[in-house]
Each structure stands twice: as C-alpha cells, then as structure tokens.
Write a sequence for this structure.
C-alpha cells in the first residue's frame, strides 16, 4: 500500500504571537460605537430580567435599541462610502 504524503512544504503564515495586528485594532476602533451601544442594550435588558418592566425600563430598552440601530446604520454608511464599487 502506498502512503499519501504532502509533496509541498507546510504553508504557514507568520507565527501567531497572540496580539492583534494594527489593522485589527483599527477595525475594532471603527466598530467601538456599535459595541458600546450593544453593551448598553444588554445592560438595559439584564435590568428587566428578574422583575416586571415598568415604563422607565421600557423607555431605557427602546432608547438602547435605537442607539444600536443608529450605530449600525452609521457603521454601514461609513463602510459603504469607503468602498469605490458602490455608486
């Protein structure tokens, strides 16, 4: 029986050092408003888990959802304005 072995050398990129690259940090920085808005929404939802939601809680969750939607809209508009193939 013939053994099957790779004929080429193992293809590896730069060794992983565990730290994010500058490009990854820039991408995170671009998405930070959305991340903050999602955390605020999660906080508002967590506050209403163990008790019935009153009017203030409902407003807080609604405001947080609107902030998430606005942050997503802004992020997608920024991405769309940066890509030349979109007219």
């Amino acid at each position: 029986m013939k053994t099957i072995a790779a004929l080429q050398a193992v293809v590896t990129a730069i060794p992983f050092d565990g730290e994010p690259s500058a490009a990854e940090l820039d991408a995170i920085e671009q998405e930070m408003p959305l991340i903050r808005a999602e955390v605020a929404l999660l906080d508002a939802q967590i506050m209403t888990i163990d008790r019935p939601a009153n009017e203030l809680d409902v407003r807080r969750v609604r405001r947080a959802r609107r902030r998430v939607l606005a942050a997503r809209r802004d992020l997608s508009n920024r991405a769309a304005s940066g890509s030349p193939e979109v007219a």
Q: What stands out?
A: The chain has two helices and no strands. The mean pLDDT is 85.
